[in-house]
Write a structure and sequence with these properties.
Chain A is an alpha/beta fold. In chain A, about 30% of the residues lie in helices and about 25% in strands. The chains are: A alpha/beta, B alpha/beta. Strand 7 of chain A pairs antiparallel with strand 8 of chain B.
Chain lengths: ~290, ~325
């Protein structure tokens, strides 16, 4: 099983992004995803800057580099940027909206179906394969049993060898997307006057219950889990299911350490007790996502 | 422009038709639709009756099969399509790409609409559905502004339907796992958001508390109206500031957009609320019928009446309404 570093879902200054991916080059990740997936107003790096960065990482590290694309696309201008990224001519593309699937199909290029593509069953998987999907990342709300069922069906249908399967395995989960910017709202500002305030919250803004429970993280128009999803104790199960790639979501502090941990877990599995006030693994076990099955 | 009303049962369906709906949308009595609540929706017998009632009056019936088919259980969703077609539905409202594929291949002549749960917000995504499943119509998510809807309407190769009134989903529909994160059940998988079985009310010294799967969603003082704890409409704390961090309890109301929606060529305005009572359906259908007819009689001199707004506000969450994302400032 390989490891990937998922795209950073946060908004960081350009220099920080560059130094982050400089560090990623020597990380334990086999695959590096990069690009803006949350908000088109985040323009510290433009399409050409992301592609430039991708080129740099690809040329200096023996890793596959994938360009991740936007999830919620509402305007023709956003579609124009998406087309530019899709038609980059060098890198594999992660589609996070069916618009990108359509564009990649028109370009006759293979693509990764990212976490925001609603692929819940074999029939959908088969449609996406016809469009050119070569790798599938399961929606984050689905369980290990659900995955097992789809992969068995894919095997029976003779298509399992046509795609790689990737599972979101560590980090704050992307849970929802809105027209509204919750970070701007938290500063009592409208989205049109957001002043790019996400940049002040490199790990998003915590949204707790009035009893102090870490419920969600506000990240612009995206709402994330308040706890970090952690499948470190499921690595053997992932391998057994034939999962090809475990994704570690990029963050400010821990992603590189987690990549090392997961790498070690591949050869020397160990049980890590999860921390009930910071971590969760419920989705995998088909219970409330925010809870833990030890 | 079609007035499309919700019905959770036969009485609501009859009420909708009798009060001016051009079409009604309903769901089957299982988890194939996104309002899978106890005591709601149509079994096979009721489905046939619904079809008869609607068609005898020359109106249209749409059947919503708008959750995502479970791995290993796709048959249930295919069966739902078969049943809807068997009773002569005029349109299938489908969210799942796999289910759409099935419907398009098996019943090419039955009209297919892309459900709002498919989160189709741009031209390329519309093309995906048109090219692959020859859909007739796309229901737009409630995340677009009026300007964005107008732009799409100009270039869309298929008809567009928009939400006109009802509970306001603030997230892109079909792309929200907040409910399953908190309870294990989401609109996509079980057809319900913030399911009632996880709701708990408790009178405490600090006030009336509402909880969802034990997470505190809101706490009300004695002078405040308590609302259903839909998790995105609770009060939470961000850096010591307690407020409706995502959205206030409010409903979408777009009466005043009727002239614009007409001018854009939007084919249908949809009323939310299959879970609501026949009384709700009656009031909303009647009010919207009046407004649409008034516009048709005199398009150049259309003005929203205060009484209409009041009727609709009274039926709304928190007794207030908003233009939502249609109005840029809401974002």
């Amino acid at each position: 099983m390989k490891l990937s570093l998922g795209p950073s879902l946060f908004f960081w200054p350009k220099a920080q992004v560059e130094s982050y991916y400089h560090q990623a080059k020597s990380s334990s990740a086999d695959i590096i995803y990069l690009g803006e997936t949350v908000c088109s107003k985040r323009r510290e790096l433009r399409a050409k800057d992301w592609l430039h960065l991708a080129r740099e990482v690809a040329s200096e590290a023996n890793k596959q580099v994938v360009i991740s694309t936007m999830t919620l696309l509402e305007s023709p201008a956003e579609i124009q940027v998406l087309k530019k990224l899709c038609d980059n001519g060098e890198f594999l593309v992660e589609a996070n909206d069916l618009s990108a699937v359509q564009i990649m199909h028109d370009l006759k290029m293979p693509f990764v179906a990212g976490p925001a593509i609603n692929c819940y069953n074999l029939s959908t998987l088969k449609v996406l394969l016809k469009q050119g999907m070569m790798r599938w990342l399961m929606p984050v709300e689905l369980s290990g049993d659900w995955l097992k069922s789809i992969l068995h069906e894919a095997e029976d249908a003779g298509v399992r060898n046509q795609f790689e399967c990737e599972v979101f395995s560590w980090g704050y989960l992307p849970l929802a997307y809105s027209a509204r910017c919750f970070t701007a709202r938290s500063e009592d500002r409208a989205k049109d006057d957001c002043q790019y305030c996400c940049i002040n919250y490199p790990e998003g803004r915590r949204m707790n219950s009035r009893e102090g429970e870490k419920v969600f993280v506000l990240n612009g128009i995206q709402t994330m889990s308040g706890y970090q999803y952690n499948l470190i104790n499921e690595v053997s199960a992932l391998k057994e299911l034939g999962v090809d790639i475990a994704r570690i979501s990029a963050d400010n502090e821990q992603a590189f350490i987690q990549l090392d941990k997961f790498k070690q877990q591949l050869t020397q599995p160990e049980h890590y007790p999860l921390d009930g006030v910071n971590e969760c693994n419920g989705f995998w076990h088909k219970i409330a996502g925010m809870s833990i099955a030890q | 422009m079609e007035l499309l009303c919700p019905a959770g049962n036969l009485p609501a369906l009859k009420t909708a038709i009798d009060n001016g709906a051009d079409a009604v949308y309903i769901g089957l009595k299982d988890d194939t639709n996104a309002r899978h609540f106890a005591g709601l929706n149509f079994n096979d017998g009721k489905l046939a009756k619904a079809s008869d009632y609607v068609h005898q009056r020359d109106k249209k019936l749409h059947v919503a099969i708008n959750t995502f088919a479970h791995a290993g259980a796709e048959e249930r969703w295919k069966k739902a399509v078969d049943n809807a077609v068997a009773i002569g539905t005029d349109a299938l409202i489908i969210a799942d790409v796999g289910v759409l594929d099935y419907a398009a291949n098996k019943y090419p002549d039955v009209e297919r609409h892309v459900s709002v749960q498919a989160s189709t917000t741009n031209l390329e995504a519309i093309k995906f559905f048109k090219n692959n499943f020859d859909v007739e119509r796309v229901v737009l998510p409630r995340v677009l502004s009026v300007q964005q809807v107008r732009q799409l309407a100009k270039s869309s190769p298929v008809d567009l339907e928009v939400f006109a009134f009802g509970s306001l989903c603030i997230m892109a529909e079909g792309r929200c796992y907040l409910s399953s994160y908190m309870t294990g059940e989401s609109p996509n998988t079980v057809g319900a958001c913030s399911p009632a079985k996880y709701v708990r009310w408790q009178e405490t010294e600090q006030g009336l508390e509402s909880r969802l799967n034990n997470v505190l969603i809101d706490r009300y003082q004695s002078d405040e109206n308590a609302g259903y704890p839909t998790l995105c409409k609770g009060r939470f704390e961000v850096d010591n500031n307690v407020y409706h961090a995502l959205e206030e309890p409010t409903s979408l109301n777009t009466l005043e957009l009727i002239p614009e929606l007409m001018a854009m060529g939007i084919v249908s305005v949809k009323i939310e609320g299959r879970q609501r009572s026949p009384a709700y359906v009656e009031q909303v259908a009647k009010t919207w019928r009046m407004a649409l007819d008034r516009y048709k009689q005199n398009p150049n001199d259309f003005a929203v009446e205060g009484a209409w707004m009041q009727t609709l506000a009274n039926l709304s969450e928190g007794a207030q309404t908003t233009l939502g994302a249609y109005h840029r400032k809401w974002k």
